[in-house]
Design a protein that fits this description.
- The chain has helices at residues 18-27, 50-60, 76-82, 95-111, 131-139, 150-165, and strands at residues 6-11, 33-39, 67-72, 87-92, 116-121.
- By secondary structure, it is of the alpha/beta class.
- A 5-stranded parallel β-sheet has the order 3-2-1-4-5, sandwiched between helices.
- The protein is globular, with a radius of gyration of 16 Å.
- 29% of the residues are buried.
- The protein binds adenosine-5'-diphosphate.
- Residues 11-13, 19-20, 23, 90-91, 93, 97, 122, 126, 129-131, 178 line the site of adenosine-5'-diphosphate (ADP).
């Protein structure tokens, strides 16, 4: 019997961008299967809701049979256990990511010592990318086509147009924190 090595790649993915795509593809060189788990804060008003984020991530990986996509709102280690993942994948961009990732990894190890945390170093060309930066640029009408797949760029354009048409100031959905 072949043992399937499955990992969980958790995050907000609000929205998914080329930095996430790169980490997921590289993770598949190490693991057989990847579950992309979209963490949804209960009660938090986000630019894209859980269903929209799932759809955007699914489309980004539509030709990748070894990636599954779902949302969750429980402890990440509990979700990893639920989906049968023995590792949690995270990306590391800059030194400022390191402290948070390090603390989260230690806390998760305390909660679930059987689950390994694996950090992939961001590709140089994607180091500056974050969902919050993309949301902010898109909210001001900037070109984000080099940062996220075309269907995500379209979804951002549509969402900000909707918000403006409703008379909402889109900046309430845009913050520098991810
Ligand atoms: P969170 O909101 O939990 O930080 P994100 O959706 O921003 O989640 O990112 C999920 C994961 O992807 C995190 O581990 C983050 O470090 C990683 N990541 C985000 N942007 C990039 C990037 N440009 N390059 C590599 N990894 C990234």
């Amino acid at each position: 019997m072949k043992i399937i090595h499955r990992a969980l790649y958790p995050g907000s993915f609000n929205p998914v961008h080329y930095g996430h795509v790169d980490i997921a593809r590289r993770a598949l060189r190490v693991f057989d299967e990847l579950v992309i788990g979209i963490y949804v804060h209960p009660g938090k008003r986000d630019l894209f809701d859980a269903q929209e984020r799932i759809a955007l991530v699914k489309k980004a990986f539509e030709n990748e049979p070894h990636i599954q996509v779902a949302s969750y709102n429980k402890l990440t280690v509990d979700y990893a256990r639920e989906v049968g993942a023995f590792a949690i994948v995270r990306g590391l961009r800059v030194f400022s990511d390191f402290e948070l990732e390090f603390r989260m990894a230690l806390a998760n190890r305390r909660l679930a010592p059987e689950i390994e945390i694996v950090n992939f170093i961001a590709a140089e060309e994607h180091i500056h990318l974050s969902s919050s930066t993309i949301r902010e640029i898109a909210s001001l009408g900037g070109d984000v086509s080099s940062m996220a797949p075309p269907h995500v760029v379209d979804a951002l354009e549509r969402r900000f147009a909707e918000l403006k048409a409703q008379g909402n100031d889109p900046s309430f959905m845009v913050s520098l924190a991810d």
